From TrEMBL:
GO terms for molecular function: thiosulfate-cyanide sulfurtransferase activity. Coiled coil: none annotated. Keywords: Repeat, Transferase. Pfam families: Rhodanese. InterPro entries: Rhodanese-like_dom, Rhodanese-like_dom_sf, Thiosulphate_STrfase_CS, TST/MPST-like. Residues 20-138, 168-283 form the Rhodanese domain. Gene3D superfamilies: Rhodanese-like domain. This is Sulfurtransferase.
Amino acid sequence: MTYANPEALVSTEWLAEHLSDPDVRILDCTWHHASTNLDGRTQYRGRHLPGSVHFDIDHIADKLSPLPHMLPSASDFAKKVGLLGIGDGDRVVVYDRLYGGAAAARVWWMFRVFGYDKVAMLEGGYGKWTKEKRPSDMSMVRPEPRSFTAAYHPALVRSLSEMQENLATAAAQVIDARGPAKFDGTQQDVFPFKKLGHIPNATNIPWADLIDPDTGAFITPDMLAARFTMAGINLERPIVTSCASGITSCVVALGLYLLGHKTAAVYDGSWAEWGLAEDTPAVAA
């Protein structure tokens, strides 16, 4: 079995051969929660892939929302991405330092939400790249601003009200990408909450289950398809993915895309929103 949509990934071998292509733009999307005492921008300044610029999901976000890194407007996304040196027609490659590329997958999804499909994630990210002793750089990259066009595609995003409506209609299958302890409410989340557990009728597929821990790349297509099948997910039906704050859910959405399910949506607010709302039910162990 092969991926139905392999264009969503690029290998380290491919990128090494195309580093100097004039239309290739590389984004270091490394992000860490504040509780880790790590900072993606600082890590970028220390070492990064040659020619890459840092994409901060907390900066390219709706700054008026009290929720973490919610989607910005199309115009704000276009402006800030253009300032990163990305223009219409460029081939965008995203990566980060967390195995599996959690924040990189979010950025991949963001580009697709804003109507841009020429974006792919680097398989295995920075970890695989450096293990293979490929080049990295310390010099700051100051790109020339370019013109980027963005058009919002709401079909790839779900809001709180739509998720509440889905409780009654069950029109979409809901996949929760968090770990089992957060899913069943026995472990607290890192974001503020009023309740623990998960959205009723959600299926737990931890995002790390889709990643090979040795390489940081996705598991084989056969294994990936089997993981969804074992969880009872029907790839012919609508799917929405959720997590803690809309990051690791994008890894699951990317996995579904690879298997041919191009329309999987992401609940942008995820548990950071659902767990704080007054009128949202939760299921706990």
